[in-house]
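Q: I'm a student working through a structural biology exercise. My instructor gave each of us a protein and asked us to get a predicted structure, then write a short paragraph describing it. Mine is Heterokaryon incompatibility domain-containing protein. I'm not confident about reading structure output yet, so if you can add a plain explanation after the tokens, that would really help. Here is the sequence I was given:
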Amino acid sequence: MADIYASAYVVLSATATEDCQDGFLQERPKPFLIQYAQHGQQFQEVYARQIETHTCECEYEKPKIDYALYKRGWCMQERFLACRIIHFLPNEILFECQAGRKCECDGASTERRGPNVVPIGGYDNFGGLQAAQEMDTKIFAHNWTRIVQEYSQMKLTYGEDSLPALSGLAACVEHLKPGKYIAGLWEQEIGYQLGWCINPTDDLTRRWEDPKNINILGPTFSWSSHVMGPVEYRYPSDYRFEPLCTLESFNVELATSNPYGQVHGADLCLSGWSMPGNDMIARYKGREDGFTRMYIYFDFGLCFRFDWFDFWKTEELENTVSWETVLCFGLYGYEYDDDEDCFGDEKYAVDALLVQPSQSEVGKYVRIGVVRYLQKSGFNDAAVASTITLV
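A: Happy to help. First, here is the predicted structure for Heterokaryon incompatibility domain-containing protein. I'll explain a few features afterward.
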């Protein structure tokens, strides 16, 4: 199916249609008649119509983009793969391709671009990957995670489709040699790609509708396995992040012959540096080693954001999990952006995985969350060399 959309000369999209019974050629609202007269002249008539699908020049005006086809996972892939697409909207017809957008009123060609303005998101990132002949691995990882971030906002009927509905996009960027594909992540710069989180300040909803009683389908380290969404990534400026872990080996058990499709299971063997979870909490409470800021995101949708004056949250955090069983495994280090408040003199931080021993596979670990903004000096003082296997 992905090849059909990618090979089509042009794709017609009933974008404003709610379902297959709705039809896509709808009567447009009648234009508004404006009459005016200048001194000594007859009345003149001007017709105006409201356009909701792009923004023109108003900074605070947002376009109407909450159409059903902008919310579905399979539809996102089809739209991204299409070389050219014509959207049938309530007020006009809009043409879209990687080179730009054009509509009947010509507003789309001059609109501001951004994640809250027009529904580009990962669309531009995918276009850049698809067109490039080669790319630095860090830049590739940045672009791929942008695509993942948008895709995680889409809805699916079946959880088993989480990877297949993105497989066409993955196949299209494989020419950039990012390594093997591991359940939604690429081998190169995998430490950075493991740093996703589920932010409960977003509108937490289930990404798939069935099965309703299963929250994780697949390896815990992959964003694609988790029903809660959307996921988000941290983007250090100018790609200035340094890996703290190394991928030693991995195994993927595919469910079909599609190397980018559904998996029955997967595991990663990572070497790097880790510290005990209860040591991390104790150091934060003691405030002796520079742990003055810490954001913890659990994969079940709970978040703790600690800054200077958030002591009252620590007891709740301590009771959330059994910290004596948790490892804090470093993923990558980075320098704070110039406009970020680093809450102290140090400007270097670490993002790390939170993992616990698997209850079903001896000697292996499952991911339970991620911690951000660990100050690097404190982490380096407490961390020891370790190798873990994630499932």
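A: Here are two points you could use in your paragraph. The mean pLDDT is 87. Residues 190-391 form one domain. It's a good idea to check both against the output above yourself.
Q: Great, thank you!
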